[in-house]
Protein 1
Amino acid sequence: MSNEHMAELLFPDVNQLPADIYSLYPPRKLPSSALVTRFAPSPTGSLNIGGLYATLISERLAHQSNGVFFLRIEDTDKKREIKDSIENIIHSLLYFGVDFDEGPLFSGNEKGAYGPYKQSSRIQIYKVFIKHLVLEGLAYPCFCDTDDLQKIRINQQKLKVTTGYYGKWAKHRDITFQQAEEEFLNGKPFVIRLKSTGSSDRRISYHDLVKGPLEFPENNQDIVIMKTDGLPTYHFAHAIDDYLMGTTHVIRGDEWLSSVPIHIQLFETLGFRIPEYGHIAPIMKQVGASKRKFSKRKDLDGTAEYYKEQGYPGIALSEYFMNLINSDFEEWRMANPHQSFRDFFIHTDKMNASGALLDMNKLNDVSKDVISRLTGKQVFDHLYTWAKEFDSELYFLMDKNKEYTINILNIGRTMKKPRKDYAKWSDVLPMIAFFYDELFEKDVLSGYQLPTNVSFDVAKEIVLGFSKTYKFSNGKDDWFNEIKELAGDLGFAKDMKQYKANPDHYKGHVGDVAMVIRVALTNRTTTPDLFDIMKVMGEKRVFERMQKFILS
Ligand code: GLU
């Protein structure tokens, strides 16, 4: 009876029972093999790559099994909340192609029938369960303030016993209704604690999806489940939400591994089915010869946003992460170059239990592969969207020269072995700048970068000679023959063999002649195929540039 009084005293406004809540969260209608997973970030900043990695695993596990992946915002710690985090997180998830079926939307609305998906909107739900635990004698109010807790700790330290609020040290564990009422009516702040039935002498064993079989001592601490402000702790909200929302598999960072005994105890006390857990080691950063965790403050490249700003296509990072998740992905990708990475089935037991290393070279290679599979038009669309946000100069150029830019981006792309030169969108402009007249003009102001073995006078002779015979409509063979003829006329060897047999006899070889034409048109010594470049530049521009070179 006194438990009932206690529950009423502490929660007079809570009128619902757990059964009322259960009726709002019926079991999901899914096949038994379907997994329900979630990403549950706290809105305390932007998404970090470790979070993105764990999220991709959760999303894949759900969707590869025709299950459900949802987003839940854990915003019960208002002090740590950072403005716009939720929007940033949603933006990042969408950019990296991690699609959630349920959760908060930009509009402030939500999708899905198992919400609300923000914990701050679920306070009443938690209270129903907390009140019920008090009523059952499984939880109790604790009026200890920091001084009281400090005293307990000092005594425990003196006696060299485990510190904390447990067993005989838990001062209010057996608080009577009368004591509680007195404190309550005096307005003393209180928390609600779980009355632990665990003993540190007993061990629990559980099988982690990633780390394999593990053993822990049971939790014997009377942990706080509701804070003085009436909000639930992370542990409690986790149990309630993941049960009601039907989560079957919890994939999260291994900083939560030590909380597993608490979580198992909470699920058991509440009579809930315990989800499967998989704990992931943090992604590591290579620094010189050693590796370390990404630092939240120091490492800009530890945030998902960084990769978006640099212009890595969202799917490139996801595709790269697939390599880290299961190392046999690489082999699969080679055998299936045109399939979506989503067709690969991931396995948690094949994951690396210790921290995966973020290898930038490998990421760049994967990203180059991903971009090489796109058409010129697709590259244009991605680049245009990226430039709009991150590079106004490029955006302006693309906007003014849409067709021209698509043709530029198409060079070397439609063949069997497409070019693999861009790893990220910020790589593109420096490589194609010479195509745009305004940038080319600026570049040649400081002079043409001729190869050292050809003088400027001879170079002008080459370009003049070429401009006289050049026909835009010529095919590649005729075009190359023209260059060969010109080489011969001007004292250059027509082919390498000739040149090598008698180098002193020639000013150079046909390659040098082509190089001069390349420099006149692009002011570069390395470019994609020169014939293709001239086709894209168009007749008028090619003649203008040759003229400009001759007159310079
Ligand atoms: N809100 C917790 C965090 O941001 C979620 C942990 C979990 O996935 O259970 O770390």
Protein 2
Amino acid sequence: MNNLISIVIPVYNEEDNISVLLERLTHVLNQEKIEYEIILVDDGSKDKTFKIIREAAEKDAGIFGLRFRRNYGQTIAIKAGVEHANGDICITLDGDLQHKPEDIPKFLNKINEGYDLVCSYRSERNDPFLRKFPSKIANLIAKKFSNLELKDFGSTYRAYCTKVAKEMLIYGEMHRFIPVFANMFTDRITEIPITLQPRIHGQSKYGLGRTFRVMSDLFIVLFFSRFFNRPMHIFGYISLALGLPGLTILTWLAIGKILGLITIMNYGPIFILGIILCIVAGQTMSTGVICEYLIRIYYNDKRKPY
Ligand code: UDP
Ligand code: MG
């Protein structure tokens, strides 16, 4: 285990926040004598964000910048930053000063207790009701289905064991559900309270439209977290649920026909329904088999997160 701590910060049009953030961040890190690398991921900013990152990187050998050619979104930015992390522990936080860099030692203390993922919950959240309400619902659903005892799945201020962080697949708005993904690889997950600071400079990059995207991502994440390792279970169930009625119909028609009780011609629609159900069941089953092969290839190929 190395002592380096990688700090990953996605930034999109945060020119007014970065300098203050870096100043406070490096102050805390130096004060605590933490060996650090700060990876700022510029997610296609149109303002002076990258210029400020470049200047900071020239002055401090522990500061690095990645720059996207266009705006890919916070999730991809976090993922890119984590992929470049060299420390065994990494921390992600927002670049808009809503997350206090002074909280970093609290996260590291928990990591030192042996946790692989330390999440945060916003004990005082100064967001408007229309932001808080959907996030409450998403948290309730995520908690119910994932069996993870977390209060807040969506807070992006987190500390990770880098191996686990690199392993997680995140797309769409899924940085919000990282704990659910992480739970596929570890159950050493905990959370600590933070106070979310109000945003002073710049604007939030999200509107209400995000609620729908978050909800659909939530569905995919829960699906993945339950069936990722055993796709045949879900495809097998669906296949049985379709195939059994299909087979029953066809058997019933066949027996009737053999005994000379019915003419198939008179049962056209139900005959076709039976055939369609059987064909779809067969297709679903073979999709399941293909997924089983894929998951085996996936695990053969992978660095193991343990
Ligand atoms: N961000 C990003 N790409 C985006 C949107 C946001 O890198 O497309 C960054 C943003 O600069 C900030 C963090 O992600 O550092 C959180 O974004 P924001 O503060 O807008 O989200 P909110 O706090 O409103 O949830
Ligand atoms: Mg913010």
